[in-house]
């Protein structure tokens, strides 16, 4: 079993951190596409196009071609949405981890290192939605596929919780999406509670029912 250690970010980790996070996030493209295909509105649209073209042309070729083209276009749209999300992550701190996470008193970035390689990442910073020391937000959780199932995700969660307690925070919050099944299992397994769901505000996300799930973890025992 590969050994690993969790340690704070160093400047030389910058490129490996970006790569680890981007690869892990890109893995969700196929599951997001499947989620899209499962939506009744998408299935109804495809069925409508297929039947209309079949009735009007009397041939199978045209409807099959049209549905294939729509599916290819839909897949491109999902790819594009992820590209936008990853760009937003870059601008939101991944491009300069030190500035975004290592200079503030209540924020931090950790990496999991194994045999000299960065194989996992996690960050935290004060939640913008809450005042004072109410909530710390966990972000940028990712583990390289080659090192999954070894407890790295759990250890990264623990680093954030210990940091939050030391800094006097009451809870940790995080958001994950409906297609990130492994992440949901990880968070529930370490004691996070699902407290809410919301659909991403963009039109495409609304149409496809792309839900964000909010999780919370209490740092103070017996806290209401
Ligand atoms: C989510 C993720 C970080 C988990 O990392 P990990 O190092 O494999 O997690 P761990 O080894 O600590 O596993 C923790 C728990 O998660 C669950 N789990 C993790 N991967 C799982 C899988 N493939 N299948 C089933 N359960 C899984 C298990 O319950 C496990 O607990 P157990 O070992 O006691 O059974 C990793 O899968 C990942 O990077 N995914 C892609 C990026 C992502 O979605 N990040 C979350 C952003 S919100």
TrEMBL record:
Domain named N-acetyltransferase: residues: 62-213
Superkingdom of origin organism: Eukaryota
Bilayer-crossing regions: 44-72
Gene3D superfamilies: 3.40.630.30
PROSITE patterns xref list: GNAT
Pfam families per UniProt: Acetyltransf_1 (PF00583)
GO MF term set: N-acetyltransferase activity
Keywords from the named record: Membrane, Transferase, Transmembrane, Transmembrane helix
Signal peptide: none
InterPro entries linked to this entry: Acyl_CoA_acyltransferase, GNAT_dom, NAT_camello-type
Protein name per its UniProtKB record: N-acetyltransferase domain-containing protein
Organism: Conger conger (Conger eel)
């Amino acid at each position: 079993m590969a050994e690993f250690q969790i340690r704070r970010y160093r400047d030389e980790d910058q490129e490996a951190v970006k790569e680890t996070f981007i690869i892990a996030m890109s893995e969700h493209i196929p599951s997001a596409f499947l989620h899209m295909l499962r939506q009744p509105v998408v299935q109804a649209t495809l069925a409508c196009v297929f039947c209309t073209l079949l009735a009007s042309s009397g041939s199978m070729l045209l409807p099959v071609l049209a549905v294939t083209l729509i599916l290819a276009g839909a897949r491109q749209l999902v790819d594009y949405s992820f590209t936008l999300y990853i760009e937003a992550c870059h601008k939101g701190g991944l491009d300069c981890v030190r500035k975004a996470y290592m200079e503030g008193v209540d924020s931090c970035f950790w990496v999991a290192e194994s045999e000299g390689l960065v194989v996992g990442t996690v960050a935290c910073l004060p939640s913008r939605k809450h005042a004072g020391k109410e909530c710390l937000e966990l972000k940028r959780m990712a583990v390289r596929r080659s090192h999954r199932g070894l407890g790295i995700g759990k250890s990264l969660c623990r680093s954030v919780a210990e940091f939050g307690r030391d800094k006097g925070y009451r809870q940790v919050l995080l958001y994950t999406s409906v297609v990130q099944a492994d992440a949901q299992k990880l968070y529930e397994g370490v004691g996070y509670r699902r407290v809410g769901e919301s659909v991403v505000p963009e039109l495409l996300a609304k149409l496809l029912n792309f839900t964000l799930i909010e999780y919370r973890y209490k740092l103070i025992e017996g806290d209401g």
